[in-house]
Amino acid sequence: MEDKIRVLIEEDEVDAKISEIAGKISEKYAGKTVHLICVLKGGAFFMCELSKRITVPVTMDFMTVSSYGSNTVSSGNVKIKKDLDESIEGKNVIIVEDIIDSGRTLKALCELLWTRKPASMEVCTLLDKPDRRVVDMKVDYTCFNIPDEFVVGYGLDYDQKYRNLPYIGVVEV
Ligand code: IMP
Ligand code: MG
């Protein structure tokens, strides 16, 4: 059976906001190279769109992480399923995420990546559910704060489906 999906944020609105955030990054890193780290799989769509709009030199790498424990509630530990291909030492890293929920995955990932001595590290997320945060986590760039609803599209999945939707939607139950 097909799930019913309600549009939360239209494609045009998502794209306009990504352009705005890319502009901020380009300004801040003028004269430098930014090294984007995509957290797979969800961050891939956002990273492509973001990187196309950044005007300073960009390099990129990809990583897959998962939290230990239950599937629905993420725990504090992060397990690396696919590590970065290159060293981040001395680089201006920006971690690119699809969504920040509890913040646990990202916090653990940031702690791990700081040990690899980047010159700087920032976090850029497409979506944030601030009401769900359980750990203190600084986020440098957020496209949209959203309410506590389960969303899909633009890289985000429900049971591995709907990542390819060009807008952000809510699966109606
Ligand atoms: P947390 O911030 O450690 O709780 O985990 C965030 C991760 O949970 C994201 O990277 C997503 O993979 C997943 N997630 C959280 N909320 C949603 C949602 O609304 N839709 C799809 N995936 C979500
Ligand atoms: Mg994610």
Task: Give the tags.
single chain, 173 residues, alpha/beta, Rossmann fold, six-stranded mixed sheet, three-stranded antiparallel sheet, 3 helices, 9 strands, 23% helix, binds inosinic acid, binds magnesium ion
Could you give the distance between the termini?
12 Å
The SSE order reads EHEHEEEHEEEE
Query: Which ions and ligands are bound to the chains?
Result: inosinic acid, magnesium ion
Mean pLDDT over the full residue set:
93
As for the number of domains, it is 1
> What is the CATH domain class?
Alpha Beta
Summarize this, please?
The chain is an alpha/beta fold. The protein is built from 3 helices and 9 strands, in the order βαβαβββαββββ.
